[in-house]
Amino acid sequence: MASRPDWLKIPWLGADRRRHDPYWDFFISTPPADRANSMLDVIRNAPEGNVFPTRADLHSPEVTASHVKEMASYLGADLVGIIRLDDDDAGNPFAVVCAVRADYDPHEAPGIGGQVPVQNGLFVTFVLSAWIRELGFRASMTTSLDGARLAVAAKLGTLDRTGKLVTAEYGTRVHVADVIRTDLPLAAA
């Protein structure tokens, strides 16, 4: 009969250890004392860059939309949708909505660990909008549009009674990144 080493305890097996770890709670719940330790302001305040003067030859709007979705997924977006904007004041007829999985709601977890989905979403939208500008079309990130409602319009999920996006894949554990407004000819999907 083989003996079982009861003295060997493996910390990552068994119950959720995060719940009992005071450092984990601090990492998730406590905002940084110095805003320079957060990448959110750095990415949001970075200059957008110029639109390439020569527009790229594109396929149909359907193929271009699939390329945009593939690029967003490659950059880390878990859900991507495209909708037509009817009343955009800047003359951009389309919006690209990206969402990333979030273990913690960034509105309730102001710590650096709780803001990881916001940083991931900003990275996706920043690079994706730069890529669209390299194709010769306007693209800018905006916080003025209601991302959750646009995500519902893009058929990424539904809204619950509190106004949070609920998806089939992740439930409410999802963060909608800043919306990209663009004049890139796309098919809403």
User: Helix proportion of residues, in percent?
Assistant: 25-40%
User: Largest sheet, if any?
Assistant: 5 strands, antiparallel
Beta-strand content: 15-25%
The fold-level CATH name is: NADH Oxidase
> How many strand elements?
7
The first-to-last residue Cα distance is 62 Å
Low-confidence stretches: none
What is the C-level CATH assignment? Alpha Beta
| Mean model confidence by pLDDT | 87
The general outline is globular
Short précis:
With 189 residues, the protein is of the alpha+beta class.
SSE topology sketch:
Layout (H helix, E strand, L loop, with lengths): L21 H8 L9 H6 L16 H15 L3 E6 L9 E8 L14 H19 L4 E4 L4 H7 L4 E2 L5 E2 L7 E3 L2 E4 L7
Antiparallel strand pairs: 1-2, 2-6, 2-7, 3-7, 4-5
Helix pairs in contact: 3-4
Keywords:
189 residues, alpha+beta, NADH Oxidase, five-stranded antiparallel sheet, 5 helices, 7 strands, 15% strand, globular
Can you walk me through this structure?
The protein is of the alpha+beta class and 189 residues long. The protein has one domain: NADH Oxidase. It has helices at 22-29, 39-44, 61-75, 116-134, 147-153; strands spanning 79-84, 94-101, 139-142, 158-159, 165-166, 174-176, 179-182. Strands 1, 2, 3, 6 and 7 form a 5-stranded antiparallel β-sheet that branches. It has a two-stranded antiparallel ribbon with strand order 4-5. A hairpin with a 5-residue loop joins β4 (158-159) and β5. α3 (61-75) runs antiparallel to α4 (116-134). It is globular and about 65 Å long. The model has no long low-confidence stretch (mean pLDDT 87).
